[in-house]
């Protein structure tokens, strides 16, 4: 089971997906009970994989755009990661073009710095979600959490984590809004040479050889070898 969240500020939106694993679920039909006590405005769709798929993400975008209501004269920027449902989805591109949504895809290996939900929202949300599960289990001894409790538990955690302060910090700390191209330090962009590990391996492999050479080499003039019984002792 996967949950898709959206954080937005005027003109910019950034979604993120988190997965809740409750065993293999082949659900393809939605039940209203699955959204009991879920956050207001939630959209629920099903897929047997439990993950976001192209057509499901398009449904999600339809839902978001119908609430945000962007236009070509008043557009929004949709900031996405490199998931295939975002980058290889022609239907999504057409939907965005018609509705005045500009898609920006984050470069690989930068989402931990620039995906604002990951930077500011997911940690408190997951903390509150774990606390909600623990509290529910204490109050319902002998029972286990199923899909029918997820909406309620998720809603409880979401209402605590989705604050104005968290959203503001997320946009500011990623440099998305206000736009700050100098938000990261130079060392965070340093490249790692592909030969670094190889040179380390060669060094470690060469070390025993040098030690062996040192053990088998002849003593220098004036030195005493403790391994040679014929060496005169003082």
UniProtKB/TrEMBL annotation:
Alphabetized InterPro entries for the sequence: DDE_SF_endonuclease_dom
Region span, Disordered: 1-23, 194-234
Stretches with biased composition (Polar residues): 214-234
Domain DDE-1: residue ranges: 46-143
Protein name (database record): DDE-1 domain-containing protein
């Amino acid at each position: 089971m996967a949950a898709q969240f959206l954080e937005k500020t005027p003109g910019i939106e950034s979604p993120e997906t988190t997965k809740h694993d409750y065993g293999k679920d082949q659900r393809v039909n939605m039940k209203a009970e699955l959204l009991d006590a879920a956050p207001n405005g939630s959209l629920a769709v099903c897929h047997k994989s439990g993950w976001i798929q192209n057509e499901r993400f398009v449904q999600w975008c339809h839902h978001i755009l119908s609430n945000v209501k962007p236009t070509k004269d008043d557009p929004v920027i949709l900031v996405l990661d490199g998931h295939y449902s975002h980058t290889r989805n022609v239907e999504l591109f057409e939907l965005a073009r018609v509705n005045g949504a500009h898609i920006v895809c984050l470069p690989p290996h930068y989402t931990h710095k620039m995906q604002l939900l990951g930077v500011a929202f997911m940690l408190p949300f997951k903390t509150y979600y774990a606390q909600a599960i623990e509290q529910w289990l204490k109050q319902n001894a002998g029972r286990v959490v199923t899909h029918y409790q997820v909406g309620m538990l998720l809603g409880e955690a979401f209402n605590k984590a989705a604050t104005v302060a968290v959203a503001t910090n997320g946009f500011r700390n990623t440099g998305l809004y206000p736009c700050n191209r100098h938000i990261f330090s130079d060392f965070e962009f340093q490249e790692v040479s592909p030969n670094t590990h190889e040179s380390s391996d060669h060094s470690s492999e060469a070390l025993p050889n040098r030690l062996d050479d040192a053990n088998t080499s002849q003593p220098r003039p004036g030195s005493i070898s403790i391994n040679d019984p014929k060496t005169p002792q003082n």
